[in-house]
Q: What sequence folds into this?
C-alpha cells in the first residue's frame, strides 16, 4: 500500500541543511536575510500587542450553519466531529484560512521567502480572490505560516538536528503580516527534540492574539534517526500537550481560541488519533501535506484525513512540486470545494 501513497518531498529539509549547519544562524546568512527585504525599516520590529479580550458570545446558529456547509453533504456519520463549541472569537468554521508557507532564509522552502514581501502579498491576494469567488459563504482570513524551527541534516551543537530561527525573523514575519491584516502561524520541526522543549520558547509570540501554531510530525524523529531518513511521527500525547499549552495561554491572557495545524500525509505520522483531545480554547486542523498529481492528492486526503476525523481539515498546494506529475497542474479552489469535508485551512508552498 505504501507504494501508492503520496509522499511529501523533503525539499524544505534539503535547503534548510544547505543554509544552516549549526544551532545558531551563522553571520553569513545576513546577506541572505538582506536579499529577502523583509521590511523597509529594519528598526521597526513587530510590536507585542496587548491581548484584546475575546468576543463575548459565540453565534452558535451561524456556527452550526457553517459546520453543515463544511461537511458538504457527507452522510458517513464521521463529520462533523462531535465537540464542544469553541470559545467566542474562534476563526473556524466562520472563516477559511488561506496561508502562504515558508522561511525567510530560503527561497526554496516555500512562497513565503521565495518572493519579496510586496510581490508575495500581491500573489496571496490573488489566491484570496479565487477562494472568495469559489465559496462566497465563507470569508477568507489571510495567514503567513512561518517555519521558525527547521529540521537539519546534522546534529548541531545541541545534538537535536534542528535549528531555531532568531526572533528578529519572527518579528519580520509579523510586520509583513500587517500588510494584509494576516494572522501568523509559527511552525515547528523538532528533529530529535520535542514539543515540550520548543513550544515554551515561543510563548511571548503565542501569547499574541494573532499568532497560532503548526507542528510537523514528518520531522519528529522518535527513533533517533536524522531527519529525512524516515518519516517521523507524533502521538496523540504530543498533540494533546500542544493544545493544553495553547489552552492555558488562552485562559491566562483572555485570548480567542488558538488554531493548531498538524501536517499529515501518511497514517503512521499521527498515532492513536482516537485519543486526541479537543478543547474549546483550541481548534485542531489535520492538514493534508502531500504533493503530486490531483488524483493522488485527493486520494491522500480521503485515506488519511477524512477517515480519521479530529475537528477541521486542511489541504496544501505546492506551486512547483504538484507540477512534477502528469497532468502537471494545480488543483483549483472549485475542485477542493467538492471535498467532504471542505478544508477550512488552505496552505500554498
A:
Amino acid at each position: 500500500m505504501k507504494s501508492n501513497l503520496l509522499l511529501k518531498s523533503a525539499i524544505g529539509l534539503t535547503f534548510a541543511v544547505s543554509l544552516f549547519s549549526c544551532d545558531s544562524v551563522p553571520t553569513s546568512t545576513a546577506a541572505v536575510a538582506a536579499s529577502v527585504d523583509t521590511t523597509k525599516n529594519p528598526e521597526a520590529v513587530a510590536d507585542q500587542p496587548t491581548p484584546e479580550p475575546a468576543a463575548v458570545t459565540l453565534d452558535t446558529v451561524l456556527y452550526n450553519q457553517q459546520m453543515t456547509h463544511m461537511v458538504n453533504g457527507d452522510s458517513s456519520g464521521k463529520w462533523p466531529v462531535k465537540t464542544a463549541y469553541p470559545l467566542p472569537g474562534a476563526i473556524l468554521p466562520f472563516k477559511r484560512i488561506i496561508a502562504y508557507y515558508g522561511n525567510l532564509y530560503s527561497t526554496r522552502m516555500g512562497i513565503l521567502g521565495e518572493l519579496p514581501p510586496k510581490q508575495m502579498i500581491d500573489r496571496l491576494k490573488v489566491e484570496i480572490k479565487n477562494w472568495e469567488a469559489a465559496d462566497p459563504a465563507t470569508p477568507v482570513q489571510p495567514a503567513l505560516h512561518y517555519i521558525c524551527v527547521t529540521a537539519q541534516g546534522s546534529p548541531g551543537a545541541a545534538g537535536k538536528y534542528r535549528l531555531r530561527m532568531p526572533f528578529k525573523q519572527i518579528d519580520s514575519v509579523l510586520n509583513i503580516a500587517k500588510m494584509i491584516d494576516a494572522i501568523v502561524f509559527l511552525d515547528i520541526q523538532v528533529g530529535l527534540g520535542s514539543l515540550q522543549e520548543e513550544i515554551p520558547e515561543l510563548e511571548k509570540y503565542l501569547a499574541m492574539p494573532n499568532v497560532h501554531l503548526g507542528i510537523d510530525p514528518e520531522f519528529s524523529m522518535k527513533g533517533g534517526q536524522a531527519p529525512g531518513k524516515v518519516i517521523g511521527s507524533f502521538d496523540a500525547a504530543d498533540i494533546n500537550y500542544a493544545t493544553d499549552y495553547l489552552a492555558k495561554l488562552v485562559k491566562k491572557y483572555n485570548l480567542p481560541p488558538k488554531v493548531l495545524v498538524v501536517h499529515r500525509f501518511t497514517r503512521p505520522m499521527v498515532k492513536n488519533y482516537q485519543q486526541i483531545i479537543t478543547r474549546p480554547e483550541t481548534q485542531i486542523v489535520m492538514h493534508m501535506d502531500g504533493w503530486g498529481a490531483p488524483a493522488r492528492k485527493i486520494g491522500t486526503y480521503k485515506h488519511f484525513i477524512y477517515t480519521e476525523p479530529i475537528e477541521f481539515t486542511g489541504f496544501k498546494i505546492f506551486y512547483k512540486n504538484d507540477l512534477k506529475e502528469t497532468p502537471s497542474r494545480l488543483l483549483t479552489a472549485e475542485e477542493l470545494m467538492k471535498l467532504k469535508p471542505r478544508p477550512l485551512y488552505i496552505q500554498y508552498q
Residues 182 and 245 are 23 Å apart (CA to CA). The radius of gyration is 19 Å. DSSP finds eleven helices and eleven strands in the chain. Residues 117-134 form the longest helix (18 residues).
